[in-house]
Amino acid sequence: MSASDDLLSREEPPWLFAVALATTLPHTLHQPAWLSGLAGLLLAWAAWLWQRDQRLPGRWLLLPLAIGGCLAIVAEFGTLFGRDAGVAMLVLFMAMKLLEMRQRRDAIVVVMLGYFLLLTHYFHAQDIPTGLWLLLALWLVTAALIRLHAGRIGPGETLRYAGQIGLQALPLMLVLYLLFPRVGGPLWGLPQDAFQARSGLSESMSPGSIGELVRSGEIAFRVRFDGTPPARPLLYWRGPVLERYDGTSWQVWPQRRPAETIEALGPAIDYETTLEAHGQRWLLALDAAATLPAGATLDGRLSAQLAQPVEARRRFRLSSTPAYRLNRHEQPATLTANLALPPTGNPHTLALAARWRDEEKSPSGIVDRALRHFRNEPFHYTLQPPLLGRDAIDDFLFRSRRGFCEHYAAAFVVLMRAAGVPARVVTGYQGGEFNPLDGYLVVRQSEAHAWSEVWLAERGWVRVDPTAAVAPERIERGIAEALPAGEPLPLFIQRHADWLRGMRHRWEALNNAWNQRVIGFDAQRQRQLLADLGLPDADWRTLAIALSLAGAAALALIAALALRRQHRQPPALRLWLRAQRRIGVHCAPGETPLALAARLRRSDPASAEAFDPVVRLFLLARYAPTPNLYLAALRAAVARLPRRRSA
Amino acid sequence: MTTTKIPSLGSRPHAFVPVLDAANRIILGKAHEVRLAAACLLAGGHLLIEDLPGLGKTTLAHTLARLLGLQFARIQFTADLLPADITGVSVFDRSSAGFRFVPGPVFAQLVLADEINRATPKTQSALLEAMEEGQVTCEGETRPLPSPFFVIATQNPTHQIGTFPLPESQLDRFLMRIEIGYPSRDAERELLAAGGRRTASEALTPLLAPADLPALQAEIAGLHAAPALIDYVQALVEASRNTPAFRHGLSPRAGLALLAAARAWAWLAGRDLVLPDDVQAVFPAVARHRLHSDQGGGPATASDIDALLAAVAIP
Fold this sequence. Notes:
The structure holds two protein chains of two kinds. By secondary structure, chain A is of the alpha+beta class. Chain A folds into four domains: 3-179; 204-498, no CATH class; 525-556, no CATH class; 571-640, no CATH class. Chain A is 50% helix and 13% strand. A six-stranded antiparallel sheet of chain A has the order 9-12-7-2-18-17, with no helix packed on it. Chain A is elongated. In chain B, the strands form three sheets. Chain B has a five-stranded parallel sheet. In chain B, strands 3-4 form a two-stranded antiparallel sheet. A two-stranded antiparallel ribbon of chain B has the order 6-7. Chain B is globular, with a radius of gyration of 21 Å. Chain B folds into two domains: 12-201 and 212-219, P-loop containing nucleotide triphosphate hydrolases (Rossmann fold, 3-Layer(aba) Sandwich); 222-315, Helicase, Ruva Protein, domain 3, CATH 1.10.8. By secondary structure, chain B is α/β, with parallel strands linked by helices. Chain B has helices at 16-26, 31-42, 57-67, 83-87, 121-133, 168-171, 185-194, 198-202, 212-221, 227-242, 252-268, 276-287, 302-311, and strands spanning 46-50, 72-76, 88-93, 98-103, 110-114, 135-138, 141-144, 150-155, 174-178. Chain B is built from 13 helices and nine strands. In chain B, strand 3 (88-93) and strand 4 (98-103) form a beta hairpin. Classes of the chains: A alpha+beta, B alpha/beta. The A-B interface holds A 570, 573, 587-595, 613, 616-617, 619-620, 622-625, 627, 630, 633, 636-637, 640 and B 1-2, 4, 6-9, 224, 226, 228-229, 272-277, 280, 309-314. Chain B: Belongs to the MoxR family.
């Protein structure tokens, strides 16, 4: 290869600009704005220089730029390693490489960087739009690679080749997708910062924390019931149980509890839940969990926990009994813990509770009294409660009377404890929305909820939801119905957004299908598939062997096809033979197509008129310097030939 | 019916259209032979015309030389012609008191070697070596021949008295051998009515500048020959080697000649692409003098050649 071959031609850089743009653009959603700006500026500079056909900047300029960029990345992320800093560096280098594109080698580097950058997008999202975008970008990067190697071919042809190559890779991709050994966790250890900023319940609750969560329209989990789903008021999805109260916030009691005793009062409901990553170990089972997936345990408070935090979308099978009795005989220590209150604060609340305790004969009477109180006094259910003072419960119960579920649950539990009834706050989700298209129940962050549990003799822990007393619609029909208009809910769960709802259902059903079938093809499903294929109990060794065999078979198939293609006639010749069959003539061995056309003109002038263009196009497609130019026209001309009447 | 524009195979006007027209006005009724001669010249090869005396061989050579503006020399081969009569000799120049090389008739752009097979093999080979090498070595000094250098040799049919047939090795150096044959009845009538053509050819004016011909030859040599066409040429050459009708097959040089001649033929038809038809058109002229019939060893007959063409499938 001579030196001039190594230089890039004028038509090649636009392909590389497109590669850089397509592979870095989605990162603008995640990376710092200055980096996007810098990368965009560098790209625009490179394009401008190309457009003006001017010299690229020299090393004396690029080197300080590169060093400066790296320093800025260190300043931003504190490191050059890890997911975000690494991706930022790749983006920066990609943009800078465009200013260094002199030789083919540089262009190849851009293409390889492009391929690598494609992968990095999956750190952030594995959804359908990302998949589609990356598919298109992959197509483009491959086309650029082809353009670099194939020389002067048109953009259409380049893209066509790239598409062909992509389609040819499809079987291999499917084999790898189906057979590549799946391991429980991520195959490679992801950098520490790969999991961050997950929304979800936390192990503590203070006024406003759930209210914040509710403003998110993100999906928390999806559930598919095997049989008839329980009624909406029974859909309590239990997260952490908060027993420790310090006057402002509620926390999980760190102490271990003995296993709970659950008496099922009705049939169990089987269901499958698909948890979105929330970075915690809560399984969020429907009350009360009956059977748990392997590796999950109950914590003594009926909250199902996993051994590992959920760092990726995971699917579990569970069953629950909505009618149950929990811990009829509770440990005295537990009961004591659930009566504890801070030594000072909230005097009015304590006084109110003391009065109820005196007036009511039984603990259940106190519970009813409290609920009546919430129902009859002018309490408001709102996402925008006023700020509360030092004695938050007093402030809420006697002054503002405006609050969200956590306010009601907290106030209720404090009242109960003050009145001598063991009580605790349970956080989780309540309700959910059925997608009519795929039958999945979608539970969002906006369904986050806090309720209470009181322990009554002979009945065990009984769920009491004071929010239901204030705003029964919250439990019956969902949060959008319960909140007054103008509350800052995400647009698409607001009640008036019916026109959006249909679209949203469709989109979410599609996403769910994608998550369940494509992303959710995990080790278990793989085992199932292999068992269906007659390979039960396949471990990774069996898989590796199966993969090698499948790969060998694919290679053999490709080789066989290639060999066959070698022996197969070229397309122009095949079309020419077809044309002869259609018109009912046969070319003698030494007869040229033009001679055949002349013969036909003498014997059958009518057919010859239709045949002439075929002859001309065949000769062009077979003997012209650019034969492929005429193939399509030849195909069309052959298709237009009148069929010989069978006589 | 949809009216898709079908590209034509091409009938591009070219510089040789007027040349062929003019030549056809001189050599009546022999358009195919004239065209073959022109193709041979454009392919950069030498032409052998074999026929009985008086059929217009010399006129054809003369006409082409005139029309193309080539410097013309004629050598009449006889049994006593010596090599030096062709290449030239050094003579003593009294004024300079030294030997001076007097170039022979071969130092011309178009040399008509008339009745080449009447000379002795030694003399024949002097010309044939000049044809092959494009230069003449004489008395230890090598002198280049002019460019373009084109030889039209004529020979009488070998069965005539007083001929030394050209050996196969030397015949191979002619790109083509053509036969002119008797004129058609109409053409002969017109010839008789209008008188001999030799004088008319003397009056022709050149239609091409001297520099045009090398440029055209280069253009033709660069004409695209598709893989399928090369397959066909190869198939023909191979078939000639495997057909029992011939004693020997065609040489690789013959294959190259066939391709070059087909390119020139295609160019004369105004096409950018070479078709099997072009190969077939030039094949008899290119192949026949290189092939020898297995029976008796005489030259291959026209029907042998046609049979070969009809038998080889066009890939």
